[in-house]
Amino acid sequence: MPAPRVVRTVKALRNALTPWRKNKRIALVPTMGALHAGHISLVRLARRRADRVVVSIFVNPAQFAPHEDFSRYPRTWKEDLAKLSAEKVDLVFAPGVEDIYPQDFATKVSLEGPALGLETDFRPHFFAGVATVVAKLLIECMPDIAIFGEKDYQQLQVVKRMAADLDLPVKIVGAPIVREKDGLALSSRNVYLSPAERAAAPTLHRVLAEVAASIRKGAPIGPTLDRGRATIKSAGFKLDYLEARHATTLEPVTSGKDGPIRLLVAARIGATRLIDNLAV
Ligand code: PAF
User: Fold this and answer.
1) For 136-154, what is each residue's pLDDT tens digit?
2) Using one digit for the tens of pLDDT, what is the confidence trace for 192-223?
3) 27, 46, 18: which is closest to 145 by C-alpha?
4) Atom nearest to 149 CA in ligand 1
5) Considering 75, 159, 160, 167, which has the largest number of Cβ atoms within 10 A of its Cβ?
6) pTM attached to this predicted model
7) What structural domains does the chain harbor?
């Protein structure tokens, strides 16, 4: 299988895209590499929705705090390229840090709305880093559509809001979470889990499903979330949050009538932080 063409600079990316712009629909799938079946589902969705598929691979330092896992974040370039070539991806954009953040770089996207709370309470640097790099990638590539996994649900809402607010001429498309058979959401960080942690990890999805079912049956949201929080903690997690939010604004909801509702969870097991979410 021939490897997809790889470009490493914005100039080379734009040159490669120019001939397609005339009559081809272009999809961008932004990733940080360490590709798994979840990413491949994004690539396949891109393929169904566009004529040309571009995948970016860039481990974005701006979305990691100094104490986080930037340096040990899995980097699996060879395997990633083999997977993308099996999917017949048209172009891979893999810039270096200096291409995205030259020395005098001084701009940051500043966010409110869906970026407030949840992840921001625990990773205050995160969405400014994500939104800045995503804005750059969208402007550099100018795709017709860009695909983001619902696994990072708050990220998806933040990116949708940003694209609308900045009038970026791109449709942001969310793709469903891909799960292991036992419910664990696929994540590049799952490789960090020890066997015991891996065994406990599906608790997050199980609790989300139980809480969603109870709320659907009319159970009060507050006490139902409290029970879910207790179950997660008793499975050995350090819970950051388990919340019920409006599915697009991510504002807190107090009753099933405030919906559509999305449940969102983040919790640490050992040294690994996992996130997950589910529609009610
Ligand atoms: O979801 C991710 O992998 C990253 O946050 C993204 C969107 C590629 C930006 O670095």
Assistant:
1) 999 999 999 999 999 999 9
2) 999 999 999 999 999 999 999 999 999 999 99
3) 27
4) 1
5) 159
6) 0.97
7) 5-175 (3.40.50.620), 188-279 (3.30.1300.10)
